[in-house]
Design brief:
Layout lengths: L2 E12 L2 E12 L3 E5 L6 H8 L7 E6 L2 E2 L5 H5 L3 E4 L11 H10 L4 H14 L15 H13 L5 E5 L7 H14 L4 E5 L3 H7 L2 E6 L2 E6 L1 H5 L2 H8 L8
Parallel strand pairs: 3-8, 3-9, 6-7, 7-8
Antiparallel strand pairs: 1-2, 1-4, 4-5, 9-10
GO molecular function: ATP binding; ATP hydrolysis activity
Keywords: ATP-binding, Nucleotide-binding, Transport
InterPro entries: AAA+_ATPase (IPR003593), ABC_AA/LPS_Transport (IPR051120), ABC_transporter-like_ATP-bd (IPR003439), BCA_ABC_TP_C (IPR032823), P-loop_NTPase (IPR027417)
Length: 241
């Protein structure tokens, strides 16, 4: 397996608080990795360091053996990394197709844009809604449009922060299927709290606790780990995919 992204003793402190201590993390090409853990465990902060939203105060992150820690989100995106944060970054007053057109316009030859927009509309299941204005669409549909805006540049790595947050059960299931399709062409990292959703998509899971990696393994392995149950899951009933 080829290593795509790797951190070495990467961490960050805010004042005297070590939000993330010193994490060694390896992601191979083609993986779909989920990051989980209790509130304050450090997973979201770790994700923000990967995506350039937070600058590490120690250690480093390498993408294809190139140091990216400390770079800004737009610099990281230019390397072929698609980033979706918790807050949707879409143009609410424009249509689905117009949002995709704008995402594609600066990244490819104009002659190819129309075909790519059609491809992504099919991928996200919104071909029949392409002329709808985003402000009039459901929350889940707007989230799918943002995923489409990431997909249109064919990123090698996709970083997703709580992509299923606030969705209905039907939307969650469709989002899970969409992320699995994305994983057919891109390596994916997902931060998420919804364990049922994690069970639908997870290949490998990294569990954070108190700013450190507590456990790693398959979904079944980590949900049956006594340390994970004590720190995070408790008596939560887990649905195994």
């Amino acid at each position: 397996m080829t290593v795509l992204l790797q951190t070495h003793q990467m961490g960050v402190s805010f004042g005297g608080v070590h939000a993330v201590k010193a994490v060694d993390f390896t992601l191979n090409e083609g993986e779909l990795r989920c990051l989980i853990g209790p509130n304050g465990a450090g997973k979201s902060t770790f994700f923000k360091m990967l995506s350039g939203q937070v600058t590490p105060t120690r250690g480093e992150c390498r993408y294809r053996d190139r140091v990216i820690s400390g770079k800004r989100p737009w610099e990281i995106a230019r390397l072929g990394i698609g980033i979706k944060t918790q807050v949707p970054s879409v143009f609410e007053g424009l249509s689905v197709a117009e949002n995709l057109w704008l995402a594609a316009a600066n990244k490819m030859d104009k002659a190819a844009v129309a075909g790519e927009v059609d491809r992504v509309l099919e991928d996200i299941g919104l071909s029949d809604r392409q002329n709808d204005i985003l402000s009039e669409m459901a929350h889940g549909q707007r989230q799918w449009v943002e995923l489409g805006m990431i997909l249109i540049s064919r990123p090698q790595l996709v970083l997703l922060d709580e992509p299923a947050a606030g969705m209905t059960h039907h939307e969650v299931r469709k989002t899970a299927a969409l992320i699995q399709r994305i994983n057919q062409q891109s390596t994916v990292v997902v931060v998420e709290h919804d364990m049922d959703f994690i069970g639908m998509i997870a290949q490998q899971v990294t569990v954070f606790n108190q700013g450190e990696v507590l456990a790693e393994g398959t979904f079944s392995q980590v949900t049956q780990d006594a340390r994970v149950k004590e720190a995070y899951l408790g008596n939560l009933e887990i649905k195994h995919a």
